[in-house]
Design goal:
The complex is a heterotrimer. By secondary structure, chain A is α/β, with parallel strands linked by helices. Chain A has five helices and nine strands. Helix content of chain A is 25%, strand content 21%. The chains are: A alpha/beta, B alpha+beta, C alpha+beta. The interface between A and B is small, with 9 and 10 residues.
Amino acid sequence: MTAVTSAAFDGGFRQPVFDAQTTFRAIMDALARPGRRVICRPLATAPAPMSPLMAAVALTLVDPETPVWLDGALAASADVRGWFAFQTGAPMVDQPADAAFAFVVDPARMPPLSAFAQGTPEYPDRSTTLVVSAESVEDTGAVFTGPGIETSVLFDTRPAIPAFAEQWQANRALFPRGVDLLFVAADAIVGLPRSSRLRTG
Amino acid sequence: MLHSQTSETSPPSDRRAAMALLAQAPRTLMAAGLEGIEEADGASDVRAPEIGLVMVRGRMGGGGRPFNLGEATVTRCTVRLPDGTIGVAHLLGRDRARARLAAICDALWQRVETREAIEARVLAPVREARAAEDATVRAETAATRVDFFTMVRGED
Amino acid sequence: MYVAVKGGERAIENAHRLLADERRGDRTLPSITLEQIAGQLSLAVDRVMAEGSLFDRDLAALAVKQARGDLIEAIFLIRAYRTTLPRFGATHPIETAAMRVRRRISATFKDLPGGQLLGPTFDYTHRLLDPDLAGDPDLPAPALRPELPTAMPRVTDLLGNEGLIEADPAETGEPVGDLTREPLSFPADRDLRLQGLARGDEGYLLALAYSTQRGYGRTHPFVGEIRMGEVEVEIDVPELGFSVVIGRITVTECQMVNQFKGSAKAPPAFTRGYGLAFGHQERKAMSMALVDRSLRAGELGEDRTAPAQDEEFVLSHCDNVQSTGFVEHLKLPHYVDFQAELDLVRRMRTEVAEKREAAE
């Protein structure tokens, strides 16, 4: 253990209970209505390159009992690691497969979805939830169907995850195992749970 | 680093010892000890006092593999002094005011200018009170020690 | 089957009001304070902390008061309360060898380093009711025998040095099982068994422990050592980069020493059972140690024939909050289930009567 930098102490929720409830509600709505932008005002901040809304999502979901994996850009920042240590107390893991939550700010260079925890047939919930930065979310692009989607929904994020269509189909094929995704833009969250299907052709 | 002016002069082992004493310091003692220390009044909450649990662990057989014994209530608090020094407290129990005072004392202890005051007004009295209490418990317990002696038996 | 039935609100409200009145008792007498409960009914408070699985004397005293002295109800209140709080983490394992000892006895070694310290015990009292305690008699202060701190090694460590007793199970680096986080499944490792026993019902564990002594899974026990006193609680603080002591708690530890025959590979050595509980909980710690040992039957190559050797039986029924929930739920309305069964029995009786008539 090493002591954290002073940046770690700033940016937490001002009203921990209410702020976490507000953010949780947005995350829940995002997963219940896959592919829809759910507007969520960031109620926290964190050292760069974490965005304020990603910080709020982390404070809402992560605690000392949820191992966290950070992508290279986040892990390279001692301020970010210290922020997680103080604000969440979560243990950091080196292997994506050991993570309950993964935070990704550089989607272009992230490991394949299959590298993260996929859950087990008995406990499909023991898979990784990925929280991925999105500079922009468009109502165009790939078409998704499935539970929580009335007919179909179109959405696309930038920067893109490499070979995302193939990766998502492989993830869907594992159902009920597989990872869930939360795309986090500046002021909105889009959920893509493992139950969502990518329409092809 | 947190504070270059203090980190060289306060090895963690000393601060650990101070924090262990603060964990047992009565609220009134700390409140009185902080009176007149300007920086204490200017302390702001980085993490306001928060009540939670820690899982207390034991060891199989007393010295073996750990297991979960049960939880205990704990209150934690983090404060920042006007000069930026961060103070931290984790105490058993649910006394928010006591946790905040302990965090302020921890922050002041890290500063060369205020360490002596915390040492004299808070840590020394707690150290003495604890030593006295432990000595009393030891003496009361020692009075119940069995002094075996053997009765002479048999015919001679 | 459960159905929504309305109409009970006023009855329930008034019943709770009546309960509050009964709890208060004679209103011409002062209400009992939490300090009085924590100070004078301290062993009831200790039991609520141990089985409520939460070390907090003030809360346990409040629970005893609110439950009108019904300790299982008080334990239920504490278990419900703990679910409302976040968990910040786990402590370093407590070091019972470094305990500030208030009682320490061994039934196996008379002259052990540090001596036999009886402490505040019921042992050797005559179990005669003391009419003076109906009042508030003057008491002499405790006797004092000032002395310097003495080392009090655990008896099992003394025997262990000669290899006569099995060693503590070594750290494996495996995560510590937690039955409050993952549902219990069998076979359960010893860490989960000890956690279950530590929060288990004292009366139930006492009965099981007694059954092993009476021959249902004999383990031939001796009390190697019982010690009670205060230990420091230490946690890692992620933002500091070092660990800190956050206070002291009272625990009771029991080391049972049990017979074991050696094998072709291993020379004979004593085996052990371990008990540890919050507060001054001697009967609990002893019972726990006996049951811990009997649950190790499989590991030690013994036949599993008795209830106390069956981990599924022991662990599935030792939690008095679970037990009371399922037993006491029977008193809640089951009008529809019972009506269905009543109809069934009536119909069967009619069929039997018709057959009998037809035969005649």
